[in-house]
Write a structure and sequence with these properties.
299 residues; mainly alpha; 3 domains; DUF4158
């Protein structure tokens, strides 16, 4: 664990195991009569495992590690794990888990607020108005324009391709989101966009103005990236469909032409066989026209 838990938090199974190992009588409680004995025993344990007790230094190291990682990571569990590793590497006894938990939540909120403020400040007042308008104006289907940012691409038809092109033009008209996200870690953008995507327009109105705009801006940025990926994917699928159809038609044309060329070739041997069957027989086998007339008494 890296730290000493409170005695009441020690599982009963552990208490029983220790009691049997040191051959203490049944019913012996895991308590100390004197605080001095507690400190002495803890000092022996620290010496045994090779750690030092310096809570102030441990907190300083943990805070520094969390603040550094919070720029790119957003999950409190990830921040706490980084802080634990750094304190252990320093050979210090770990503070309680609640200390890490409170520290991670506090620093994470401070760093996120700073990132949101930076995104907000890199946008113009007109862009602020345009993004906030997404929460109010309605689309053709009755939902807010904010929901249009979340819509996935449809099947690879020509009409869907044209609609996707118009959506890209609409998104680009909201502003250059790459400028807004300058210096922001990709994981932070993804997490902020995911938070905005999970909510709806009324939920986003409950955020502070700066954070509300920052979350919408991150969602717009991800939507601009996604629509380009969808366009490329849809274009490739359309081309693949056309190529497949063209190959099928080409094979049919080749088959018809091959059949036209093979037809006369197959008939030639039959004609030759017919000529061989009609060859004249031996001399005298057939009568000439003159012989027929002589038989009939002609000249």
């Amino acid at each position: 664990m890296g730290c000493f838990p409170a005695l009441e938090d020690v599982p009963e199974q552990v208490v029983e195991f220790v009691r049997r190992q040191v051959e203490l009588p049944e019913g012996m409680l895991p308590v100390y009569r004197a605080e001095r004995t507690v400190k002495h025993h803890r000092g022996l344990v620290r010496k045994r495992v090779g750690v030092a007790y310096d809570q102030a230094e441990a907190r300083r190291i943990a805070e520094q590690a969390i603040r550094k990682e919070a720029v790119a990571k957003n999950r409190p569990a990830d921040l706490i794990n980084i802080a634990l590793e750094k304190v252990v590497e320093a050979g210090l006894e770990l503070p309680g888990f609640s200390t890490f938990d409170k520290m991670a939540s506090k620093i994470r909120a401070e760093v996120n607020a700073s990132i949101c403020a930076g995104i907000h400040d890199r946008m113009s007042p007109l862009q602020h108005t345009e993004l906030l308008r997404l929460l109010e104006e309605r689309d053709n289907d009755g939902t807010t324009l904010f929901n249009r940012l979340k819509k996935p691409a449809k099947g690879p038809s020509w009409s869907h391709f044209k609609n996707l092109t118009r959506r890209m033009e609409w998104l680009d008209g909201l502003g250059d989101s790459a400028v807004w996200m300058d210096g922001v870690a990709a994981r932070k953008i993804t997490d902020f966009a995911g938070e905005a995507d999970a909510g709806d327009a009324p939920a986003l109105r409950d955020y502070t103005p700066v954070k509300r705009l920052a979350l919408i801006a991150c969602l717009v940025h991800k939507a601009r990236m996604r629509v380009r990926d969808d366009l490329a994917t849809m274009f490739c699928k359309r081309v693949a469909t056309k190529i497949k159809k063209a190959r099928t038609e080409l094979e049919e044309i080749r088959s018809r032409r091959a059949g036209d060329h093979r037809g006369p070739d197959r008939e030639l041997p039959r004609r030759a066989q017919g000529h061989r069957r009609r060859r004249p027989g031996p001399a005298g086998a057939r009568k000439g026209r003159g012989d027929d007339r002589r038989d009939q008494g002609g000249p």
